[in-house]
Every structure is written in structure tokens, then in C-alpha cells.
């Protein structure tokens, strides 16, 4: 046996290589994105599949329906399922995620949408949620997914920022769409979802806890849709994250047709809170000319893109990447946890 080991070592030395380790032994790869028109070409499905992610997360606006006609909504979702690249990804990678306004059924819509219950069932059908799932009976599409590997655990918390969300207040400023609502009785998540989220965070033993919010959380100054339109709800979630002591909490978002990294230091938290916005897949904010975001890290990417996170359990580090076509890295951020 010793002779065999010696000879094997000599062969490796002569070949100038060493036995290859599994590169994913200590990594968990997440890919996600939003703002996808099923009738428009999406150049990324083959690139995403090539990344060999452990999960694909829809960040909302899976399709653009904007309708209260439930059969029309169902037909538009069905069209997405006929896209070959997406079908290939779906066959190889677990698909999870949430909705946003355009697949919910109404632009910038919230709790006032008349057919939200019916729309929820169509969304759950598209996502392949079993008919006997508890999600079929609850209000809202929120849920959690747990992933356990030999090296560590990942929890993905899927939020619903539509079903319960209070109405927005129009801004008189012509350069801004909405202004902050400071009332005490407004909500983004609704009472039941808030209670569920607090329980999930407080009892999580995951090494990384990813919160999928369809709308941006940290970037709240631009006047479009954002958690920033409800400042007290922003404070509530920040306090909940800090108090939970959950490890590796990261927020993912979409909606804006731009991609960017935002980072904020929260008192009482050992690591900064990052909000990674990835949007959009088939169309983007090409006319973008700048907007305020005091928490922005790097530059805004206004071309079409998707996002990836490589969660490194061994080194307790995350590599965030904004990705373009053909594997081009448009921007990158690394953070220790």
C-alpha cells in the first residue's frame, strides 16, 4: 500500500497536478433575478444553468400580466413555462421565489387588489406548490426553505410584500412617485406574516439566512416603490434582524430594473446588512441617470443582469456578483460573516 501511494504521488508530481477536490464542498450557490417578460428573449438561462446553482430564486415580476382576468394571468404564466431555456433550468435546479406587482396582477398594487386570493392560487400553481400545501390556505405567498449540506445550513425566507401592503401615498413632487407614509397603522407584511418572520429568524440555526423581498429594502430615497415608503416598517425589520441574533442575514430584492449593492451597519449586529438588488432579466432601466442611495456600494448596473451569491461555509464569506450575458461579471462584492 505504501508503494502504491508513493507511485501515485510520483505520477501526480510528474503530471504537475494534484487530485481535484469537489469545488462545492464548502459552497452553496444561489442565483436569482426579477423582471422577466415571457414574450421577450431572456439571454441568461443558459448562463444560469452553467453556474450550476443549488437553487434559483424568483425575485418577483416573473411575468408581466397586470390583469384581474385570472384565466389571462394563468395563460401568461403558461407561456413562461414554454420557454426552452427556463424549462432546462427548471429540470435541473430547484425553483423557488415570490411575486411582485406585475405577476400579482396590478402595477404597484397591494392589499386593495380585488382578486388577490385567486391570483395567489395561480402563482402557487406555476411554482408547483402541492394542492394540499399549507400555503394554499394561508393568505399571502410567503414561505421558508431550508437547505442542509455537509458543511452548513441555508435558510431562504420568501416574503410577500404585496398581499398585505398598505396603500402608497402619491408625492406632489413631479420627480417622485411616492412619499413616506408615517402613520402607525400601515404595514408591508401584515400581522400574520410579521409573526411568522419573527419566529423563523428567532429559531433559525442556519449559517446564512437569505430574505427574498421583491422590493428594495435599504435603498429608500428614490421615490419609487421601496420599503422606505413605510419607515416604521423598515425600523421594525432592522430591529427584528438584530434581536434575532440570526447568522448571515442577507436581503435580496428586485423590481427596479437596475442592479446594485446596498450595505448598512446596524447597531448590535456583528456584520453589515446587505441588500442585493438584481433586476431585470429581459428589460432594464436604460435611461437611468442617477438617484440617491446613501447605502450604495459600487455603481448601479442599468443593463440586463442577474445575481449570484456563493456562500462559503468554511471561510464564512459570501461572494456577491451581478452577472451579464456569457458569464461576464458586471460587479462583485465580498463580505465576511
TrEMBL record:
<feature type="domain" description="PhoD-like phosphatase metallophosphatase">
    <location>
        <begin position="44"/>
        <end position="291"/>
    </location>
</feature>
<dbReference type="GO" id="GO:0004035">
    <property type="term" value="F:alkaline phosphatase activity"/>
</dbReference>
<dbReference type="Pfam" id="PF09423">
    <property type="entry name" value="PhoD"/>
</dbReference>
<protein>
    <submittedName>
        <fullName>Alkaline phosphatase D family protein</fullName>
        <ecNumber>3.1.3.1</ecNumber>
    </submittedName>
</protein>
<dbReference type="InterPro" id="IPR029052">
    <property type="entry name" value="Metallo-depent_PP-like"/>
</dbReference>
<dbReference type="InterPro" id="IPR018946">
    <property type="entry name" value="PhoD-like_MPP"/>
</dbReference>
<keyword id="KW-0378">Hydrolase</keyword>
<dbReference type="InterPro" id="IPR038607">
    <property type="entry name" value="PhoD-like_sf"/>
</dbReference>
Amino acid at each position: 500500500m505504501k508503494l502504491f501511494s508513493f507511485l501515485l504521488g510520483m505520477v501526480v508530481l510528474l503530471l504537475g497536478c494534484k487530485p481535484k477536490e469537489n469545488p462545492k464542498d464548502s459552497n452553496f450557490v444561489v442565483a436569482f433575478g426579477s423582471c422577466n417578460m415571457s414574450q421577450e428573449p431572456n439571454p441568461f438561462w443558459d448562463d444560469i444553468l452553467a453556474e450550476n446553482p443549488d437553487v434559483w430564486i424568483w425575485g418577483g415580476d416573473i411575468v408581466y400580466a397586470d390583469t384581474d382576468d385570472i384565466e389571462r394571468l394563468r395563460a401568461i404564466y403558461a407561456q413562461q413555462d414554454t420557454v426552452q431555456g427556463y424549462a432546462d433550468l427548471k429540470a435541473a435546479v430547484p425553483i423557488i421565489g415570490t411575486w411582485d406587482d406585475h405577476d400579482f396582477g396590478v402595477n404597484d398594487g397591494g392589499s386593495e387588489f380585488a382578486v388577490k386570493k385567486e391570483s395567489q392560487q395561480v402563482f402557487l400553481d406555476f411554482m408547483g406548490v402541492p394542492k394540499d400545501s399549507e400555503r394554499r390556505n394561508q393568505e399571502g405567498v410567503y414561505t421558508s426553505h431550508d437547505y442542509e449540506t455537509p458543511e452548513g445550513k441555508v435558510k431562504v425566507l420568501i416574503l410577500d410584500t404585496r398581499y398585505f401592503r398598505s396603500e402608497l401615498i402619491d408625492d406632489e413632487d413631479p420627480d417622485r412617485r411616492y412619499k413616506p407614509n408615517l402613520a402607525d397603522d400601515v404595514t408591508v407584511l401584515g400581522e400574520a406574516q410579521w409573526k411568522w418572520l419573527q419566529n423563523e429568524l428567532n429559531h433559525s440555526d442556519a449559517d446564512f439566512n437569505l430574505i427574498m423581498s421583491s422590493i428594495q429594502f435599504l435603498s429608500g430615497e428614490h421615490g419609487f416603490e421601496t420599503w422606505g415608503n413605510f419607515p416604521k416598517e423598515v425600523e421594525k425589520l432592522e430591529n427584528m434582524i438584530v434581536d434575532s441574533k440570526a447568522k448571515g442575514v442577507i436581503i435580496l430584492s428586485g423590481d427596479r430594473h437596475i442592479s446594485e449593492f446596498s450595505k448598512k451597519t446596524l447597531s448590535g449586529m456583528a456584520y453589515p446588512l446587505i441588500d442585493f438588488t438584481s433586476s431585470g432579466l429581459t428589460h432594464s432601466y436604460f435611461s437611468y441617470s442617477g438617484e440617491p442611495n446613501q447605502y450604495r456600494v459600487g455603481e448601479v448596473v442599468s443593463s440586463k443582469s442577474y445575481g449570484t451569491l456563493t456562500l462559503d461555509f468554511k471561510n464564512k464569506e459570501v461572494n456577491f456578483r451581478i452577472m451579464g450575458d456569457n458569464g461576464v461579471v458586471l460587479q462583485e462584492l465580498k463580505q465576511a460573516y
